[in-house]
Amino acid sequence: MAKIYYDSDADPSIIRNKKVSIIGFGSQGHAHALNLRDNGVTVRVGLRPGGKSWNKALDEGLQVDSVAVASEWADVIMILLPDTEQPKVYQQSIAPYLAPGKTLMFAHGFNIRYGTIQPPDFVDVSMVAPKAPGHRVREVFMEGGGTPSLLAVHQDYSGKAHATALSYAYALGATRAGVLETTFAEETETDLFGEQAVLCGGVTSLVKAGFETLVEAGYQPEIAYFECMHELKLIVDLMYRGGMNYMRYSISDTAEDGDYTAGPRLITEETRHTMAELLKDIQSGAYAQNWIEENEKGRPWFNERRKQEQNHLIEQVGARLRRMMPFIQPVEIKPGD
Question: Which of 108, 154, 273, 312 does the annotation list as catalytic?
Fold first, then answer.
């Protein structure tokens, strides 16, 4: 069982006595910077001068500097840039300003796990990874709650890396909910696998396959959308609140029977074998290497696939139906966005 830490396990004074630079001001960067500031931590944001986030951070009352200046100033540097951007920024604007005793932090272990960032041995290297998008991390914090998070220490030069990371998690609000101890490898490998096999790759492929099956059989695309996409949220919300037992308790007996009889016909031994192969590619680094190379080439395959998916019939039908339902606060992503 994972070890879980709460407010009473953390020493807030540790992080409050350090200067913290948040590198990046996207979803996670925004939440980390504001939560830490509101919890009494001295914070700066490191950004590319002239970038679109610069004025957003200033408007929040935060001090903003270039990544290099923010890195030189800080005792603790939390890197919250996209995975594929981190190595270049690290080499150019962070590594030259690392000094003995500084702490380098991450919210995802990708670049440490696959060696695209190799910190010097005289710094602490740790991770605090909220298990929610950044906007939810901020919203829950503002409501007085916290987001469950993961904590890991990769390198403990000072002998205080764990205590510092836990103090950071406290300032983020994570210890209000619980912080689970893990490793960089476990966080990275399970995160990638979950995204690929279930949360993103698995779910979207299942939804599209169900939609296409109904449409190809002659059913109206609008009806297929409601049955295979729209109602998914109802089921996920039930599982989110009370697990599969609560979902099955809440649905009809007929739907529950379909769960038991059809599920194993869809998720076969072949599917499980494919999942195991996905995990092997993640563990070996093959997936990471392919993704890194795709980015180095300018993402030609990725960008073409994104375009294809944005133009799928389910997206066209869904956009039209969601406009009829303002109560769900619809958001429309157009091809090219």
Answer: 108
